[in-house]
Design a protein that fits this description.
The complex is a heterodimer of chains A (111) and B (114). Chain A is mostly beta strands. Chain A is built from no helices and 11 strands. Classes of the chains: A mainly beta (111), B mainly beta (114).
Chain lengths: 111, 114
Amino acid sequence: ILNVEQSPQSLHVQEGDSTNFTCSFPSSNFYALHWYRWETAKSPEALFVMTLNGDEKKKGRISATLNTKEGYSYLYIKGSQPEDSATYLCAGQGSNYQLIWGAGTKLIIKP
Amino acid sequence: GAGVSQSPSNKVTEKGKDVELRCDPISGHTALYWYRQSLGQGLEFLIYFQGNSAPDKSGLPSDRFSAERTGGSVSTLTIQRTQQEDSAVYLCASSQQSRAREQYFGPGTRLTVT
């Protein structure tokens, strides 16, 4: 895995609205895809780790999907709340264990 | 239970001095990672440990950087002859296994080289 890209770079969402953003990665030499939430002045916190094509995972209002054949993952947030404001990072993991991190999507929830 | 801890939380040092950053992983976690985040940048992988060995040192930016891990637990990242470009937040993370398991991050050490 050489490069992981995330889009958009930043996103402003009205409280109560749903949103999603994208992580793309090279599909060759893929082992796992990680999603983390990084709040200001805190450490990154794991959301999901997915390995299989078609994987879908859910934690409360947040869910993620994985397509390893085309090399992308979506993160969805349903009914955004102010506490969802954070930077969402994805990272690809290949056979050499190293995580390659995207630059993140900064989510700002407007009340 | 106790999470990943790092010390010091902040370090200001003069250019050319050596610094040591410490990471205490979660007990029982065999994998340990060091990352850094420079101002305005994303997370940069530095080094990874499985037990006490470091199979992947490819991320270390120069030979001024070294790391060790003893007893499968505490790890120390050493930066010799610090330069201003070394200023960053250094994060440590641990996980139960080396792959496909979530990583638990420490609070980080903010290093400022003056």
